[in-house]
Amino acid sequence: MVVAFEPSVDSAAVVRVGFWVDHLDDVRPPEHVDRQAPFTLTTSPSPDPETAEGPVFDTTELTDGPHAVLVEAVGSDGRTVQRVSRFRVDNG
Q1: 64 falls within a domain
Q2: Percent of the chain scored above 90 by pLDDT?
Q3: Cα–Cα distance, 57 to 91 (Å, whole number)
Q4: Are 22 and 28 in contact (CB under 8 A)?
Q5: In-domain check, residue 1
Q6: Hey, which residues does 75 pair with through a beta bridge?
Q7: How far apart are CA 2 and CA 43, in angstroms?
Q8: Confidence (pTM)
Q9: CB atoms within 10 A of CB 40
């Protein structure tokens, strides 16, 4: 799953991105915060430069069925952009 933002030309640089899985009200702290591009929701370490294998979001931590992730990007000027992406888990 990829959640992408298309910033406008005059937008401020993104300084952090928060991720909430199945908590779309964002009342609680995000489950993951990434402060360096590319901003990813992962449960594994950063990509290995030798193998080019990227980080992984471990879906076995979720029940099978529908889920949603709320992504909030925060710019250096304090403005925020939020997007929700829905997905289905089938760990078989």
Answers
A1: yes
A2: 45
A3: 13
A4: no
A5: no
A6: 14
A7: 15
A8: 0.74
A9: 19
